[in-house]
Amino acid sequence: MELNKLILTSRTTEIDTVAGRIISEYEKNEFGSDEYLASVFGLLKAASDRLTTAVKRIKAESALEEKDEIRDSRVRALNYFVMGSRYNPDKQISGAAEAAGKIFDHYGMEIIKESYAVESSLIESLLEEFMKPEMQAQAALLPGLNRLLNDLRTAQIDFEAASLAYENEK
């Protein structure tokens, strides 16, 4: 029987699984009288526990990145919608899009390149601007704008929940 070797490019999860199996086999058998093995497996158990913690953190961070990408795509959708609506031949629609565009232009697409915390703050502020009564009247003239804003709000809420989960994992 040939054993597969762990290599430097092995994933953290693979190494953690292998360590867990080795520890499990050690604990099943009666090797407790060997002091050297006991100390080696004590170290291995501690290292395996740290790996397991790291894997959980990586999963929470990965979920956070995924939620941020969804949020970024909602910001992009809002940007493209407003840009396109500015060129609508209907003067009411293009006028409303111009008002929405002024708000969006104040924040710009650069917000998606900011840190998570700064981006969250800017998105909250952007959404607040669109909720003002004078903008609500303009938004009513732009079919689809409120849906995009709701989608962005939902993405922001989901991101904040994932961020909280990540902070708790940390």
Describe, in plain words, how this protein is organized in 3D:
The chain has 170 residues and is mainly α. Helix content is 78%, strand content 0%. The chain has six helices and no strands. It has helices at 12-28, 35-85, 91-107, 116-130, 133-140, 145-169. α2 (35-85) runs antiparallel to α6. The longest helix is centred in the middle third of the chain and has 51 residues, at 35-85.
List the helices and strands and how they pair.
Elements: H1 12-28, H2 35-85, H3 91-107, H4 116-130, H5 133-140, H6 145-169
Helix pairs in contact: 1-2, 2-3, 2-6, 3-4, 4-6
Biggest beta sheet summary: none
Write down how many β-strands occur, each being a DSSP E stretch of 2 or more residues: 0
Count of discrete alpha- or pi-helical segments spanning 4 or more residues: 6
- Oligomeric state of the chains in view: single chain
Strand content: under 5%
Sum up the structure in keywords:
170 residues, mainly alpha, single chain, 6 helices, 78% helix
Question: In a few lines, what is going on in this structure?
Answer:
The protein is built from six helices and no strands. It has helices at 12-28, 35-85, 91-107, 116-130, 133-140, 145-169.
